[in-house]
Specification:
- About 50% of the residues lie in helices and about 0% in strands.
- The chain has seven helices and no strands.
- Helix 2 crosses helix 4.
- The two termini are about 20 Å apart.
């Protein structure tokens, strides 16, 4: 009972987050505000914590880390729900959600160690995955396949990590 109650929230959050694909400064501002208001230390998301860009999978990873206390997880999710105007109730149970290793919790490498297009490609995969989840046709499959192949071959990612991120945003597909 309640094992998958998180799905509707995660799916709505993914759709709302996609609206910020071209306004990532607003995503960063919201993330910083959520952590400040929750009185939780922001994890290291960039060298010297000078966050200049972020991808949507890393945003999901903020509340899907292996050692995150459930109380903090709920605080982060509540803050993000408010910041991004999510109407679906916040989940009470997080059973069956895969979590990230805290030591590899971003889907990109820090500035100086990543290519300029790495974060853009993660956003493209995110967008393509949601399009494919809505309309699973050959054209959308080709697009998601293209970006999947690109991002799994980046340092720090790989098949299992990217598949985990895709499961968070479209667990039914």
């Amino acid at each position: 009972m309640g094992q998958f109650e998180w799905i509707n929230f995660y799916k709505e959050f993914a759709k709302e987050l996609l609206k910020y694909k071209n306004n990532r400064k607003a995503v960063i501002d919201n993330v910083l505000k959520v952590y400040q208001e929750a009185n939780i230390n922001l994890p290291t998301l960039e060298r010297d914590n000078k966050l200049v860009d972020i991808d949507p999978f890393t945003v999901f990873g903020l509340f899907n880390k292996s050692s995150l206390k459930e109380t903090n997880r709920k605080k982060i999710i509540a803050g993000l729900a408010s910041a991004f105007n999510i109407s679906t109730p916040i989940p009470e149970s997080f059973d069956s959600i895969p979590t990230l290793n805290n030591q590899n919790a971003t889907f990109y490498y820090f500035i100086g160690d990543r290519e300029e297009s790495d974060i853009d490609n993660l956003w493209e995969l995110f967008d393509a995955a949601l399009c494919y989840a809505a309309i699973p046709n050959a054209e959308n499959r080709a697009i998601i396949s293209k970006y999947f192949d690109i991002v799994i071959n980046k340092k720090g990612n790989g098949n299992s990590k990217i598949t985990m991120g895709l499961y968070w945003i479209a667990p039914d597909v």
